[in-house]
Design goal:
Distance between the termini: 44 Å
Structural class: alpha+beta
Order of helices and strands: HEEEEEEEHEHHHH
Largest sheet: 4 strands, mixed
CATH class of the largest domain: Mainly Beta
Radius of gyration: 19 Å
Helix content: 10-25%
Number of strands: 8
CATH architecture of the largest domain: Sandwich
CATH topology of the largest domain: Immunoglobulin-like
Number of helices: 6
Strand content: 15-25%
Strand order of the largest sheet: 1-8-7-3
Length: 226
């Protein structure tokens, strides 16, 4: 442990004291219309919080409520030894992810939290093209890679793009699996996918059967071969 301290290279960067403390089954909950105040204090490292699916309606840099807040920030800065407060009103239901925008710390070291927001979708604010619940494959699906939706690769594509975890893997890893919020996952094996779900805190909410994981792995192998 002393060697890790001397190198200033942390093995974990966490919220609320542990990896997974605020993800998966431990996710925070809210309802549409709730205004939630995030107070983020950092002991000795700079951090850059961001709310995937939302933003900071009001942000008090330095944590002083006596000062005028900044408005509508996508990402804000918390210097080491300081604190920042951010307020957001949840406008739509779904899974939101509060994380450090240093994505290595968020995805690999644990600096992520989930907020499950319940309520009704407001199409006046944003038209919902696909629901956030699992979508059953249909014979008319135009996005299927192969001609038969029941094919393993076709099943994997549906899971990857739309249904895994209620929103699809593409939300974090990109439509072509080359990486976005999360890393490039082209060619990942079923074992690697299963290990990531168990190990990476930001993925701990995902529930997939062994068959589903095999299908996603087949689709990722197909993408790598293209």
């Amino acid at each position: 442990m002393l060697e890790a301290m001397r190198s200033l290279t942390p093995t974990h960067v966490v919220f609320n004291g542990a990896v997974g403390a605020l993800t998966g089954a431990n996710a925070l909950t809210a309802k549409v219309g709730d205004k939630v105040l995030f107070i983020h204090a950092s002991a000795n490292r700079d951090t850059r919080p961001h709310l995937i699916g939302g933003h900071g309606d009001l942000v008090w840099n330095g944590g002083s409520f006596a000062d005028k807040p900044a408005t509508n920030l996508e990402t804000w800065f918390v210097p080491g030894g300081s604190a920042t407060a951010a307020l957001y009103e949840f406008r739509q239901p779904g899974l939101y992810v509060y994380l450090n925008h240093n994505l290595i710390e968020a995805i690999l070291l644990g600096a992520a939290a989930h907020i499950n927001v319940e309520g009704y979708w407001d199409n006046n604010l944003m038209e919902q093209v696909l629901t956030s619940t699992p979508v059953a494959p249909t014979s008319s699906a135009s996005t299927t890679t192969t001609s038969a939706a029941g094919d393993l690769v076709g099943q994997g594509e549906i899971l990857y793009k739309r249904t895994a975890g209620g929103m699809g893997c593409a939300a974090c890893h990109g439509a072509d699996a080359s990486g976005s919020v999360g890393p490039n996952v082209r060619g990942k094996s079923a074992h690697e996918i299963d290990d990531a779900i168990k190990r990476v805190s930001a993925m701990s909410f995902i529930r997939m059967s062994d068959d589903d994981i095999q299908a996603v792995a087949a689709y990722l192998k197909y993408l790598q071969s293209k």
